[in-house]
C-alpha cells in the first residue's frame, strides 16, 4: 500500500512539474517591428545609413551586428531558447529551412497599410517595410515549405507558438513625428487595435491556436521621447521622470487591446490567445531598476551627447561619436529607442511564467 502511495505521489509530482514547466512547441512564428526583427531588413545588404548594422550593436551575445536593434538577443530569441528551438531566421532569407520557426518581423513595420498614413497626411513618416497584413502574406508564402497541405498545416500550426507584435508603436511614432499630439494619435487607437484583431483572425484561420499579442511600451519613459519632447514644466512628468502624455497614449492603446484580446478569447474558445503586458513590466523596471539589476533606467547605454538621457538624433548608437556603456546588462535602454538584451531576457521570463502574460505562455 505504501509503495503504491509513493508511486502515485511521484506520478502526481511529475504531472505537476509538467504543468508548471509548460508547453512544448514545434516552431515559433514571429511578426512585428524593430523589437522583434532578427534580420529581415538586412537580408539584401544593409540599407544605407542604417546605424544598427554597425558596432556596438550585437556586441553582448553575437559579437557583431546582426540587424537586431539591441546589444544582443531579443524577446523572441529567448523564447526560442526556452523551448529548445533555433533562433528564428528572418523569413526573407532565401533557401532557409523554416520548419522550426520563421520571423516575419521587420524594422519600421506598422499595423496599418500606407493608405492609412496617406489619409493622415504623414505617409513620408513611415518606411512601410511590411505592415501587419503583408507579414501575414509572407508567412502564407512560406507555409507550403513548412507544413505542406492545408490540412497538414492546420495540424502543424496548432502545435506552434505565434507572437504577433509588438504592433502599434510605429503607427503612433509616425503620427507624433508627423506633428500630431499624443491625444490626437490616441484617436486612431481603436482603428489600429481592430487591425491587430483582424491579424489574429487571419492566423487562426490558417491553423494557429497559441498566439501571444503584446501591447505597446511606455514610450514616455524612453530617452528618444524624453529628449525630443522635454519640457520645463514639472507637471508634464510623473514621479519616475516619464512624460505622462505619451504614456497615456500607450495605456489607451493597451486598454483597447486587452478588451480586443478578451473578445477574441470568447470568439475562439479552442485557442490560447495571450495578452503580453510589455507596458507594466517595462514601467516596473523604470520604477524599480535596482530590483532588476539595473543601475540606470532613463538613460541610453549607447549614444552620445551625455546629458540626462545620453541621446541625440545626430549621434545615435552606431554613428560617429557615439559609444556604448561598459556594462549594458546594467541598463534598461540600449540605444534610447530599444532595450538591452538584459531587459529582453527578463521580459521573456515574465511572458513564459505568466507574471506579465495572461495566460502564461508556459501554462
Describe the structure.
The protein has a domain at 25-219 and 244-284 and 341-358: SGNH hydrolase (Rossmann fold, 3-Layer(aba) Sandwich), CATH 3.40.50. Helix 2 (75-82) packs across helix 12 (341-353), helix 4 (132-147) crosses helix 5 (150-157) and helix 8 (189-206) packs parallel to helix 10 (244-267). Helices cover 39% and strands 7% of the residues. It has twelve helices and eight strands. Strand 1, helix 2 and strand 2 (101-103) form a beta-alpha-beta unit. The chain has 363 residues and is an alpha/beta fold. A six-stranded mixed sheet has the order 2-1-3-4-5-8, sandwiched between helices. A two-stranded antiparallel ribbon has the order 6-7. The longest helix is centred in the last third of the chain and has 24 residues, at 244-267. This is Esterase.
Quote the beta fraction. 5-15%
Please report the distance between the alpha carbons of the first and last residues. Answer: 33 Å
Structural class: alpha/beta
At the first level of CATH, the class of one domain is: Alpha Beta
Total beta strands: 8
CATH topology of one domain: Rossmann fold
The assigned CATH architecture of one domain is: 3-Layer(aba) Sandwich
Low-pLDDT parts are 1-21
Outline the biggest β-sheet.
6 strands, mixed
Number of helices: 12
- The average pLDDT is 92
The helix fraction, in percent, is 25-40%
How much is the radius of gyration in Å? 21 Å
Amino acid at each position: 500500500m505504501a509503495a503504491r502511495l509513493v508511486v502515485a505521489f511521484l506520478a502526481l509530482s511529475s504531472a505537476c512539474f509538467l504543468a508548471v514547466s509548460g508547453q512544448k512547441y514545434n516552431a515559433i512564428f514571429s511578426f512585428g517591428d524593430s523589437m522583434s526583427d532578427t534580420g529581415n531588413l538586412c537580408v539584401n545588404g544593409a540599407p544605407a545609413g542604417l546605424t544598427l548594422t554597425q558596432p556596438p550593436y550585437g556586441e553582448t551575445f553575437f559579437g557583431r551586428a546582426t540587424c537586431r536593434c539591441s546589444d544582443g538577443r531579443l524577446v523572441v530569441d529567448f523564447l526560442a531558447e526556452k523551448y529548445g528551438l533555433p533562433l528564428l531566421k528572418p523569413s526573407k532569407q532565401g533557401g532557409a529551412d523554416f520548419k522550426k520557426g520563421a520571423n516575419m518581423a521587420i524594422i519600421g513595420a506598422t499595423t496599418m497599410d500606407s493608405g492609412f498614413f496617406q489619409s493622415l497626411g504623414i505617409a513620408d513618416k513611415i518606411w512601410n517595410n511590411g505592415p501587419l497584413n503583408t507579414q501575414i502574406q509572407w508567412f502564407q508564402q512560406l507555409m507550403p515549405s513548412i507544413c505542406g497541405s492545408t490540412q497538414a498545416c492546420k495540424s502543424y500550426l496548432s502545435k506552434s507558438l505565434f507572437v504577433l507584435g509588438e504592433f502599434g508603436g510605429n503607427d503612433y511614432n509616425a503620427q507624433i513625428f508627423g506633428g500630431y499630439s499624443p491625444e490626437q494619435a490616441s484617436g486612431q487607437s481603436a482603428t489600429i487595435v481592430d487591425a491587430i484583431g483582424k491579424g489574429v483572425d487571419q492566423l487562426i484561420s490558417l491553423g494557429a491556436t497559441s498566439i501571444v499579442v503584446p501591447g505597446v511600451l511606455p514610450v514616455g519613459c524612453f530617452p528618444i521621447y524624453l529628449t525630443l519632447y522635454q519640457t520645463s514644466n514639472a507637471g508634464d512628468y510623473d514621479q519616475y521622470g516619464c512624460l505622462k502624455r505619451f504614456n497615456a497614449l500607450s495605456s489607451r492603446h493597451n486598454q483597447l487591446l486587452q478588451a480586443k484580446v478578451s473578445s477574441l478569447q470568447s470568439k475562439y474558445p479552442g485557442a490560447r490567445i495571450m495578452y503580453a503586458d510589455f507596458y507594466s513590466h517595462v514601467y516596473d523596471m523604470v520604477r524599480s531598476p535596482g530590483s532588476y539589476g539595473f543601475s540606470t533606467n532613463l538613460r541610453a547605454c549607447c549614444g552620445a551627447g551625455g546629458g540626462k538621457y545620453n541621446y541625440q538624433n545626430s549621434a545615435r548608437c552606431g554613428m560617429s561619436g557615439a559609444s556604448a556603456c561598459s556594462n549594458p546588462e546594467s541598463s534598461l535602454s540600449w540605444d534610447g529607442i530599444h532595450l538591452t538584451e538584459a531587459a529582453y531576457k527578463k521580459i521573456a521570463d515574465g511572458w513564459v511564467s505568466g507574471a506579465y502574460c495572461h495566460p502564461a505562455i508556459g501554462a
